[in-house]
Amino acid sequence: MTTRTLMPPRTTIQSTMRAAHLKRKILYILVMGLSGVGKSTFISIVTENDTIPIGAASNLMGETQEVQDYILDYHHNGVLYEIHLIDSPGFDDGALIDTDVLSRIATYVNTNYKLKQRLAGVLYLHDITKTKVGWTGKRNLRMLENMIGTDAYRYCTLVTTKWGCTTISKDEETREKSLREERDFFGSMLYNNGMNADMKRFDPKTKKRALEIIIPYLDQKFTPQISHQMVAPDGPKLPLGETEAGKVVVDNLTKLKCTEDQLLKLERAQETLSQKYDEKLFEEFKQKRKVLRRKIHMQRSGRWIMRTSLISGAIVATVLTLGPGASVFALEPAFEKVASRQRKMEKEEKEKLKAKFVEESQKSNRFSQISPDWVLDKNMNRLQDVEDLYSLKSRSSDSDILKIAKRGEVVGFAASESSEAILGAADLAKFEGWELSYSDTDLSDSDYEKE
């Protein structure tokens, strides 16, 4: 019986080699708009990703309730662009209040800013079938304007969607004209002393048309006003509620009727808007943890593909030349050398992430006595849990120390290792100058060191 060895498809290898020689650029485009205007549909079409959740027309709550990042690889003029399309929840989502939505978008944008990953542009989608913009639509346009800032309108495209979904096309064109000309609608952004936004139709609803809307931003980069106000080194570092975009939300909150349910929402909103440095620091390092996890995961996947390719190639070569009895692992030492170097770099980046937290936490009231080990624990998604399980403060009993040690066992660290990490936390500040080029959560060595 003849044994056949399956080789990777030749076209895949060739395309991979070509891609390796292309210049590569990464950019981020924020997709915004009210619930149901077609943000997820737009992203699904341009990325050809049919797994993206898309809400039904009858669903009053938007399908997207978290900021989602979808990637489109696009070759253009000899450059391979890695385009991150950021699908954001709608400001009129029935399950979320505006403060939650703005906070989630601001956290994503501000974290990217801290990671030196600037936005390339913003797409604001509007449903052309809507006969009225309404008070909610106007409020959200004002929020958009204040979030990016008047000087950055040129980085925004106002995209009308759902063309041809009504029986009278003339009505759609009349609404488009009204949107363009009236300053309460798109006019204030389209006519802004040369710093104008653009306006385009997503019609026809095809990938080609979506790319035509995206292409102008391939080589753009800007910092939105909300990042200048909240996290820029030379900015005022305002809480969310004191930013220009936050003030739009605050103004809306004052108009709420004080029913019992709305009082609860108002209390939660005010807590979000007053978010200070400690909370922002926690959210920032959660995102950095996610970034590092994804980067390590990609490296592991690359090592697996490399090993598979080497072994497959070795099998074919030895069977053809020396017969099936020859060794097929001649290239294994070379692979292990590369893998070992990557593992070392992964460890160093995890230590740098912890060290950066130690450095940043010195400015914080709540984090100055927190072990940096929490940033490698994917289960730490609430600030209170971090304070309970990773506090370095002296306690009157041993129960909390034992709790921390047991927690270490749960997440993959030996209890003794957890204790050593706590005792040596102050020494971590010697690491400086780290930066991650990618934007994922337990980063314990047990997850990544075993191939």
In words, what does this structure look like?
The structure is a single chain. This protein has 16 helices and six strands. By secondary structure, it is an alpha/beta fold. It has a six-stranded mixed beta sheet with strand order 2-3-1-4-5-6, with helices on both faces. α5 packs across α6. The longest helix has 45 residues.
Summarize the structure.
By secondary structure, the protein is α/β, with parallel strands linked by helices. Helices cover 48% and strands 11% of the residues. It has helices at residues 10-20, 39-47, 98-114, 134-148, 169-181, 183-190, 207-214, 225-230, 244-253, 260-273, 277-321, 332-361, 383-389, 399-410, 415-423, 445-448, and strands spanning 23-33, 68-76, 79-87, 119-127, 156-161, 198-201.
Helix/strand order: HEHEEHEHEHHEHHHHHHHHHH
Tell me the overall shape. globular
Q: Indicate the percent of residues in helices.
A: 40-55%
Strand elements, count: 6
Mean pLDDT: 74
